[in-house]
Amino acid sequence: MGVALGLYRNLVFQDPDWDWKTLDLDRDVSFADRVLSTVNMATNPDLRPFFGRGGKLLMYHGWLDGSSPVETFNYYEAVLRAVGPQARESMRVFGIPGMGHCSGGPGCDTFDKLSVIDHWVETGKAPDRIVASKVSDGKVTRTHPICAYPRVARYRGAGSTDQAESFACAEETPR
Known about the structure:
With 175 residues, the chain is an alpha+beta fold. The chain has two domains: 35 residues, no CATH class; 124 residues, no CATH class. The strands form three sheets. It has a two-stranded parallel ribbon with strand order 1-2.
């Protein structure tokens, strides 16, 4: 409920003391819809003006986030439909196993986002694989690759499961 509570407190009612127990489904949900429709919540998939100026968009979403990660991937697909395949050179989306909302959780949730974007801008090569770390008490305890959607990390069958080198990015197997 953390994301929804923050959304209602800070964006909808603009009251950090708002109590969720006072939520009136009939009144407040429609009010929230009206308020949120005025906020840019990444609903417009036509990013041609941004990409046309050389913009690079790096998005990531933890698979344990209470806010559905599937919506992030749906947005990426909508951008591809609106902009075309060239959007793949300007946009990357990464799903992070075991990560909560922006960080936390048992997964590897730490990586240098700014360096990834800097390298992308400087070299022109979009990232397909990023190594993330799990840090506990200031020490790296595990590393794991995060792969550009639609690829996912697959264990190579040898090596420590706590080391990124033991995994390769591969196409997700259809279910």
